[in-house]
Write a structure and sequence with these properties.
Layout: H1 2-17, H2 30-46, H3 51-59, H4 66-111, H5 115-134, H6 145-154, H7 160-180, H8 186-203, H9 212-220
Helix pairs in contact: 1-2, 1-4, 2-3, 4-5, 4-8, 5-7, 5-8, 6-7, 7-8
């Protein structure tokens, strides 16, 4: 929340400063000076590891010119980009560690010739990845995975060809196991593991881009 608020504050300060020339001094503009000071104070709170930089800007506030404030803002934006990328990587690592763990369990079940358990783990891995990439809360334990994949494939949301394979080789077979007591074969299990390995590989580090229409269709069908 602090990062989003900081981004909004940067936007407002930037808009207000755009009314002045680059060489204009904050010494003669009390409101702008107060805004920049507040921005630096909040930046210290949002990004405390960079406190020294923000404090130095704040302490020299009376001598700053508009172009120098813009330079400081650009630096904050760069720091925010690094921060968000780090958070995303940490989140993704956790999710893909979970999916990879399920893949490992599926492989272990495969070696034990317990193909039913292997498919249950593959299906869980599929759900974990979809929830993360589509912004679906993990607290929603029961989601309509089939419907979600149908929507993504229909609208050709990348990597839809790999989603087609995951639906065919993992989801459909796991559903048959659950609903009619189907006993999967060794080759079906091999294909399921391969389909999930390829899908996870394609989704790792990739942003799934959804239009508002597609997102609404997915959420309505949960």
């Amino acid at each position: 929340m602090d990062i989003k608020k900081l981004e909004k504050m940067i936007e407002i300060v930037g808009i207000n400063l755009s009314k002045y020339s680059a060489s204009s001094s904050l010494l003669y503009h009390d409101e702008r000076r107060a805004e920049v000071a507040n921005l630096m104070s909040f930046a210290i709170r949002a990004l405390p590891e960079h406190k020294a930089f923000f404090a130095s800007i704040k302490n020299s506030i009376y001598g700053l010119r508009v172009h120098e404030v813009y330079e400081a803002i650009d630096h904050i934006k760069a720091l925010l980009k690094i921060e968000k990328e780090s958070e995303m990587k940490i989140k993704e690592l956790k999710v893909f560690e979970g999916a990879s763990d399920k893949l490992k369990k599926a492989n272990l079940s495969f070696r034990k010739e317990d193909y039913t358990s292997a498919f249950h783990n593959l299906n869980t891995a599929l759900e974990l990845v979809l929830k993360d990439k589509l912004g679906i809360p993990t607290t929603l334990t029961k989601i309509n995975t089939s419907n979600i994949i149908d929507i993504l494939v229909k609208h050709k949301v990348e990597p839809y060809l790999y989603l087609v394979e995951a639906r065919k080789h993992v989801l459909l077979i796991d559903n048959k196991i659950k609903h009619i007591g189907y006993s999967p074969s060794k080759i079906e299990c091999i294909n399921g593991i391969k389909a999930m390995e390829e899908l996870i590989s394609k989704l790792r580090g990739k942003e799934v881009k959804l239009t508002e229409e597609i997102r609404n269709k997915i959420y309505q069908g949960l």
